[in-house]
Amino acid sequence: MRLAQICRHPIKSIGFEELASASLTEGRVLPFDREWAVLHDAAKVGALSEWVHKMNFLRGVAGPELMAIRAVLDEGARRVTLTHPVAGEITVAPDTDGDRLLEWLRPLWPADKPAPVRVDHVPGQAMTDVPQPFLAVLNAASNADLGARMGQDLSIHRWRGNLWVDGLEPWAEWDLMGRTLRIGGAQVRIEERITRCKATTVNPDTGAEDADTLGALRAAFGHQDFGTYALVIKSGPIAIGDPVEVL
Questions:
Q1: Which of 39, 44, 134, 216 is least crowded, fewest Cβ atoms below 10 Å from its Cβ?
Q2: Among 173, 186, 180, which Cα is nearest to 138's?
Q3: C-beta atoms surrounding 116 within 10 Å
Q4: CATH 2.40.33.20 domain locations along the chain
């Protein structure tokens, strides 16, 4: 097995970024993954001070166009360049350029949904879908198998994963619960399945809903689970092509 892809999402639900390498830290998410999030005006919270539920944020399940945004992060400057096939390109520092980002996002966000109002973050706390500092580890063969069942190619970016593994049999990840994977110089422990939402039906190249991923999962397996959550239990560097070993 080998590590086939590393992905992060600097602003929750707003842009995916492919990386060649990363450094994992015990008990932490992928660096800068979901570092920022955009709250809407129906959010049940004020200024962020801790993890809060995903329902408070702009998400692809409510605004499919967001799924077509790509991101490139300058970590040192804390600046993100976002591109979209219709909205074009913008470079912002989310800590200080929140208003500019909101203006760029408004045409991509449905008018009948609660409007975006603020960009926020909590130092040291990623705004992932769950409060635990998990990475999403996924099996490339399972994605290919589901696509074959549906008769179409499925981009891996529908699933918003962090680490993609090649060399596993399709759906063999379900047998890895509680097991530890050595990936490059790091180790992660597979903790639980990820149950999926309608955002995965959206094509990340176009922002259009064009694949009934949830229906295909239910028809084949009787559930909507795809991919696994994992916890980093040993810090270390990882890079595309690194061997992946089950310990």
A1: 44
A2: 173
A3: 23
A4: 2-27+131-246
Report, as an integer, the average pLDDT of 159-177: 98
pLDDT digits (tens, 9 = 90+) for 13-58: 999 999 999 999 999 999 999 999 999 999 999 899 999 999 999 9
Q: Residues, the chain, total?
A: 247
Tokens of residue 34, six digits: 């979901």
Q: pTM higher than 0.85 for the full model?
A: yes
Instruction: List b or e across 55-70, with b for residues whose CB sees 16 or more CB atoms inside 10 angstroms.
Output: ebbbbbbbbbbbbbbb
Q: Are 36 and 92 in contact (CB under 8 A)?
A: no
Report the distance separating Cα 13 and Cα 127, nearest Å.
Answer: 10
d(CA 136, CA 159): 9
* pLDDT (mean) for 184-209: 97
Between the alpha carbon of residue 191 and those of residues 51, 61, 85, 186, 223, the distances in Å are 19, 24, 36, 16, 18
| CATH code for the domain defined by 2-27+131-246 | 2.40.33.20
Neighbouring residues of 104: CB distance < 8 A, sequence distance ≥ 6? 82, 87, 90, 92
Convert the pLDDT of each residue in 197-225 to its tens digit: 999 999 999 999 999 999 999 999 999 99
Record the tokens describing residue 33, joined without a space.
């993954």
Q: Which two tokens stand for residue 54?
A: 């995903």
